[in-house]
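We treat protein structure as text, and this decision shapes the records that our systems exchange. Because each token names a local backbone shape, the row as a whole describes the fold. For reference, a complete record is included directly beneath this paragraph.
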Amino acid sequence: MIAEYNGPLMLMGLFIFKHFLADFVLQTHRHIVGKEYYGRWAGVEHSFHHGILTFLVVVPFVNLSTALLIGLIDTIVHYHIDYVKARFGTKDISKKSHWTWFGADQMLHYLTYLAIVLNCNNSKMGE
């Protein structure tokens, strides 16, 4: 019974690592300040980092076209989550609302990954 959870757990672990890389290692100050302006390249570029890494994470678990679609969906969803946080949240880290927005942002990203894992588990991983 434990063996059937290995694929989804491994995939979720890879998403956690992927998110760390894209949001904390690869993200630059230019990405951070550019996210509050809809359509600005810096925010789009940051979201592309997520989408590309998501593609690389899921491609061993699903077919190529599904991996491309999941990468594109993650790019779009990530962009909009970040935009809303940047546009409506505060950058003042001394304010409680900053941490509320930051926490909501991170929670939504991880819920996105959970949805992807469940989708992958219902496709190739479930075979």
Q: What stands out?
A: The chain has one domain: 2-126. The helical segments are 6-25, 29-34, 41-58, 64-88, 96-122.
